[in-house]
Amino acid sequence: MKMRDGQRGQRFPFEIKIVNLWTNEKGKPVGAPVAVELERGASLGIVDDTEDDATLTPPDTPADKLAATLRVFKDRVNNLPDATGEPLSKIGVTAKEIFAALNRDRRACGLPKIKDRTVVSRLLGRLVEGGEVVKSGDNRRTEYRIRSRSSSSF
What we know:
Blueprint: E1 14-23, E2 29-37, H1 62-84, H2 95-108, H3 117-129, E3 133-136, E4 143-146
Helix pairs in contact: 1-2, 1-3, 2-3
């Protein structure tokens, strides 16, 4: 319920949207909650929910970053066999490639880019620990591959 001047008993269904106001010095969006009428009326003409800035910002927890990294990794790896002719088990991608693809994905979702490349290396490390991804090589030659079903222990 919200308070307003007018007749008692009138209903104005609404939802809360986050309006992004600016990006702070750490690159994080700063927003404010705004009540937006579900059945659009003249009372909220100042908020135009068709504009890009009146969208819900997706969550950005560590678990969300990990899930996004796995999704971007799988998308990247699954698209490469068609382009290269290599079998999926032989396709490897670098942390640098995943870093770039993850930031493109984050930009498309309205999230700030990840500036520190070591964040992606740590996320890929967690995927290796979880058995989703296999790491091969070291230092600049490190590649990550999808774990094949035959080498999986579960």
